[in-house]
């Protein structure tokens, strides 16, 4: 099968389902339906938190607060993506145009195909890991109680996969079974939406990376041919246009994910703090290895989500610098003055840093990821000292 897009089929299906893919019929209805269901779940989640706001239920409170914060973060991220959906549509159109151009050049097609394969692999892996991890987390308590039944477990109080407080009785069958299936499926949809957003940013950054590698390849071709004959001004003009498209594409990515990145930094710090606190309480109170493993799965998932967007920003910045290096390594000293002026112009344009920022305030990078982890550990240490 010949790859003709950086976006994987699974990612396209997810974007269509949530109404973000251009040209989808009733996309607004799809998005509003899912967001309305999330609002309803959020109301009952916060109702559960306020009902169990007791020191004696601290572990249960922090656990439910963590899941609620993840829901809230996903809700805000989907709102941000919906507000900037026209930017997303423009990005997808630009990606199609880039693929149409590279099909005619074997070297360019080879580079973009490699990037597309990596992008498809990353998207599928993220979706698989999130699916398995969330299923284990949502059904972990029930599986443990089924395999290792305890004498002190009260069978009259059955727990839903998501800790929510309904204003009516839900313990009787078949109402309880209905809500178990409903909350589990909704929780999985929420996790899939997270995987789709993470897969989308990885896909867009890999597409930019492929276009950068195409420009670097063209500069290497110029280096090999310039000693034989003068490169035409038109070839440099094409490189300038392609470079401008990359800058415009990266600015669209920044606009699309700036608000999402800001929410990611703030919320992930809180969620990682809650999870770290639960892990310390689990070890301190000896709640059991399965409860600890469940919390560790959630901790790794949230940490990975923060790492993905920081890695995307770091990788995008790194690839932007490679254009300046490739431009400088061309034998400009053997070129006519007119072409040297174009080289200088490209070098000046390359100084513009390609980056993803959190609300225009900080760049998403490995340094930012380290700051998130340090802040979370500091908060956990303070909370543990208060025990």
From TrEMBL:
<protein>
    <recommendedName>
        <fullName>Odorant receptor</fullName>
    </recommendedName>
</protein>
<keyword id="KW-1003">Cell membrane</keyword>
<dbReference type="GO" id="GO:0004984">
    <property type="term" value="F:olfactory receptor activity"/>
</dbReference>
<keyword id="KW-0552">Olfaction</keyword>
<keyword id="KW-0472">Membrane</keyword>
<feature type="transmembrane region" description="Helical">
    <location>
        <begin position="6"/>
        <end position="24"/>
    </location>
</feature>
<feature type="transmembrane region" description="Helical">
    <location>
        <begin position="296"/>
        <end position="316"/>
    </location>
</feature>
<dbReference type="GO" id="GO:0005549">
    <property type="term" value="F:odorant binding"/>
</dbReference>
<keyword id="KW-0675">Receptor</keyword>
<keyword id="KW-1133">Transmembrane helix</keyword>
<dbReference type="GO" id="GO:0005886">
    <property type="term" value="C:plasma membrane"/>
</dbReference>
<keyword id="KW-0812">Transmembrane</keyword>
<keyword id="KW-0807">Transducer</keyword>
<feature type="transmembrane region" description="Helical">
    <location>
        <begin position="256"/>
        <end position="284"/>
    </location>
</feature>
<dbReference type="Pfam" id="PF02949">
    <property type="entry name" value="7tm_6"/>
</dbReference>
<keyword id="KW-0716">Sensory transduction</keyword>
<comment type="similarity">
    <text>Belongs to the insect chemoreceptor superfamily. Heteromeric odorant receptor channel (TC 1.A.69) family.</text>
</comment>
<feature type="transmembrane region" description="Helical">
    <location>
        <begin position="61"/>
        <end position="83"/>
    </location>
</feature>
<dbReference type="InterPro" id="IPR004117">
    <property type="entry name" value="7tm6_olfct_rcpt"/>
</dbReference>
<dbReference type="GO" id="GO:0007165">
    <property type="term" value="P:signal transduction"/>
</dbReference>
